[in-house]
Here is the input.
Amino acid sequence: MRHLVDNIQRGDIALPELQRPFVWSNSKVRDLFDSMYRGFPVGYLLFWETGAEVGARQIGIEGKDARVARWLIVDGQQRMTSLYSVISGEKVVREDYSESKVKLAFRPRDAHFSVSDATTEKNPEFLKDVTKLWVDFRGTVSRFFADYEAARGPLEASMRNAWEDALDRVRDLQNFPFNVVELDSAVDEEQVADVFVRINSEGVKLNQADFILTLMSVFWDEGRKQLEAFSRGAKVPSLAGAAPFNWYIAPSPDQLLRVTVALAFDRAVLRHAYSILRGKDLETGQTSIEHRDQQFNALQTAQSEVLNLTHWHEYLRALERAGYRGSKMISSQNVVLFSYAIWLRGRVKHGVAIDQLREVIARWFFMAHLTSRYSTSFETQAERDFGRIDELATEVGFVSALNRIIDDTLTGDFWAITLPNELATAASRSPALFAYFAALNILNADALLSTGKVRDRLDPAITSTKGIERHHLFPRAYLRDVLGVKDSRQINQIANMALVEWNDNIVISDSAPSFYWPTQVDSKSYLTVDRLKKQLELHALPDGWTDLEFPEFLAQRRTLMAAVVRQAFERLSQEGYGASYPPISSAIKNEQVTEQPDGQIRVSIADLVHAGLLDAGTVMTPARSEFDSVGEIDESGSIVVNDVPYPTPSAAAMAVAGTQAEDGWMFWIVDTCDGERRLDSLRNQYRLNDVAGSEA
Here is the structure.
């Protein structure tokens, strides 16, 4: 093991975060050292030769630390990071980009490793930091016994010898033999991935972004650090000046990499980009150092444009112009990313003026998000778009090229047939629903029966359930108890929902539309004839809607909602239109919160999604029959109830039950492939998997 640590320090072995950032808890590091101490097997290490020529330097860096590593660690990154940190004393970078030292204590009396904490610091039986054994073994041991005897009195000679032998065994862990599998540089990434899966007990799969980020760690580590810094800055607001933070997306390094690759190489399929960056000519199949250097230079140039804050925020203004105010209205992050790539093509490659670009990209984003353009086979679709745009741009220019594709997609049949059909869903994160909300923003619509604006309800910084809410036009209890409609998907269909003031929602309660509607209209003295007419138009309420049969009401309203969306979309290209929104609330965006019951392993919904126990889009229902609201898990791991995201199961449960005493893990039932399960059982399964899946 010492040989491996020395090679890492010399730079012969690269230790990039190939699979993930350092995510092990200190307790897992403790278990690793305990297993090694007891002679248990700790798995293989998989190395891959980089193929770098002797003396090669990283891009843009000079000095003794700039040379390219000979080997990459493909499998075993967590173990090697753990060992390297403990033996060398170096800090590790955690998932949130904070730095900390992995500090272990050791009790020689019973050969017990422990994570250093206040208890071990106060207990003289513990050596406080085992790292010191590899720095100054004799001095460290002498000080340990001196401190112990000062606190507890002299040790018997036999016990002292036994304890010293135990400490010596810890030091000798630097000679622990690891089984290493080395792959030649000629082995391609698909073969490496196959070997990885075969020897990795957890069955983790590598993706193409992993390999490209690894190459960046080897040949241009500064570039990877730039991606990570941008990602970190996009998560929280900054008071220090311009920053990547926004209300639409907190992109990960691999997502930013997609945009960079698209701009640099016109590629969305990362497998091709990986081959290009290794210096491979896709036509001849030949690989050369010169070609690799050229491609990395192209990547470097493109990345500087992608991370340019002026470009970034000007692009996001196009999304605001399109009526989309934040992540609450985004159902596909791919649309945000590839639309940014297209924005950059227009600005950087074609020199389109920002005001023209803002208009056409607003229309493009609206179209792409509404039609789920980058949801299935998104890489193929993106590359097809890049080629088609370039082809048309040579004939009619960039802006006209985009407009032609938009018009070819959003045809008359789309507005009259496809979109009304897309609105026939109860999904709370439907692209069709978000397009309708965007349309209400564009048209500056009132909330129904109110002077408040829909725009206020969709302020991305607001998480309160008060204000404007989604309301059943045909109330749920009325449909169920009077009309006999039992299908929740029909009851909760988009066309049966409207945005109203929350206090109106309470007053309306479960009355029939023919009863509550005239009463509510008569009670609103501020509702002039013209204002009410405009609200009826924008909220797509058919003439005489209160007296329609429920299925007919849904059908007519879907058609009218599609017409409102079309009207708003056409407004985007009209002269004089500009997105004018009130300033976003100064409230700080809620971070994903984890709960820690009974002092056990902290688990969040995002953890369950990452582990494959849940999927984004999974619907949850209350375990108790008196509640009929549903929750849906979104891509960030939040639970969306009535279109409001909640960071924890308990927060979502309290929103439904209206009490502070609800345990969300016991409140929700999840429909899985194995049948209905209480959310708590999935948490327990995660904890068991977490322990069992730890690398021994």
Remarks:
- Residues 550-571 form the longest helix (22 residues).
- Residues 59-64, 585-600, 691-696 have pLDDT under 50 and may be disordered.
